[in-house]
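Protein entry
_____________
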Amino acid sequence: MRAIKILLQTTIVNTPNDWSIARFGKLTQLLREQRHADRQPVFEIVARDRAANGLPDPILSRLDRSDFDELWLFAVDEGDGLTPEDCDAITRFREAGRGLMVTRDHMDLGSSVCYLGGVGKAHHFHTRNPDPDLTRQAIDDRFSSRISWPNYHSGANGDYQTIKIQGPVHPVLVDPESQSGAIRYLPAHPHEGDVSVPADEPARVIAMGTSKATGRDFNIAVAFESTGRGGRAIAQSTFHHFADYNWDTRSGCPTFVDEPPGSAMMAEPRALRDTHRYAINVARWLAQAAD
């Protein structure tokens, strides 16, 4: 059985003091370790940052002509992380039936994803594609004064949040080992972004979080089903659900992160197990792989 080939890709060049792909090393290792019953790898992982700023990326701009089965795009840029050529090729990649996970963060961080077909419309930022619900154009996390909306406060980096399942339990949230049959926990973050269901897309909200600052609910994940218009996709509120620092704060973080970290993820094994289960579920579901 051929391994599912996944590209884990950031939207910045390699920058040690930033959210470069090296800071998603635990996710990379987790996926590489998965094995079928015959010990063959389930996934083949390529993890990289973009090659250069301002130029079409040699991989992303030709992604539709590659042999990747899915792309996990960590939009960690300040608005200029993808070129038009990159966006067009990623859009064609999904239109050809392949899987796409797109995640970003607060305010305008990662806003270059707005130019992706379909999934780009699910991501709302401060100055690009703002949430049409005007009540959500408001500051949630008031502790980091330099960061404006969207910035939903689900908890400290290093802590976990209890998610709210929306509708029938989606396959990426299934956990046969849980009493409820579903994942309960994901990593927390002080200022998550804003995602919603585009009016003209076959998608639904599958999980929500609750702000510890205001008590307001917000969307964590929007799932797009495979149709004649494209392959499966996930729009995620923050890349911190997958970052090493949020799985284990001992991994370290860029120096510009100044919020006090928590330690609940390290103290509660179920939280990390749920997080691992979620990542593996997403990888399998995007590739339309059977269990």
